[in-house]
Amino acid sequence: MKKINLSPLGIFTIIFALLITPSLAMSDSNIALNQPVTLNGEFFTGGWPGGYPVDKGTVVDGIFLPRSTEWDMGAVWWNTAYGGGGQNIVIDLQGNFSIESFIVQADDNDSYNLSDWDLNTNAWVLAYLLPVVGGWGMQTRPNPLDDSERYILGAPITTNALRIEANSGDGWYSVSEIQAYGTAVPEPTTILLVCSGLLGLLGFRRRLNR
Question: pTM for this one?
Fold first, then answer.
């Protein structure tokens, strides 16, 4: 068998490729899927007759409700007339991600703010203003007729959490699905550990060659 001698640059290239491969594989994945959800404020109060509460995790379960489903049947809903308003839904992504697009299903005749937690300023920043759309009940944005079409951001955002809240409307709001597409961002400590490991490996290789 022919012996292969790798240069330090060659070793670095191989390890770096192995490091980034998982992130590349996730580039077309919904990174919000089944992540922890927190409801802030009073929810499931002030609905219509027949309305019922659902598990908060349904907003990240990857499932869209049938188009035009009633706003308080199967979605996470709230009424700003109860609890003083200001309700919002927060998704903890459990890590840093670079996000490039969204799909959201929410009540048709309201607009919503979808914000990301800015890691530099430690503040919520608007990422996507969901507009009012036609139809009735639950409708997907950006295209109510296509649940797979994404809203593409002008530039990727890096964040570890998302928040959605009402922007304007009739006071009766609901969200049934939030999807965010992007890639994992290696944490600085991970990169430092990899670099330290590379330096150690190169040092060991030099000792063997002496």
Answer: 0.80
Q: Is residue 142 part of a domain?
A: yes
Report yes or no on 14 lying in a domain.
no
Burial class of residue 88, CB neighbours in 10 A (0-12, 13-18, 19+):
middle
β-strand partners of 117: 124
Token pair 């040092």 is at which residue? 203
Question: Would you give per-residue pLDDT tens digits along the chain (210 residues)?
Answer: 545 555 554 544 444 444 444 444 445 799 999 999 999 999 999 999 999 999 999 999 999 999 999 999 999 999 999 988 999 999 999 999 999 999 999 999 999 999 999 999 999 999 999 999 999 999 999 999 999 999 999 999 999 999 999 999 999 999 999 999 999 998 654 444 433 444 444 554 555 555
- Establish if 16 belongs to a structural domain: no
The CATH number assigned to the domain holding 109 equals: 2.60.120.260
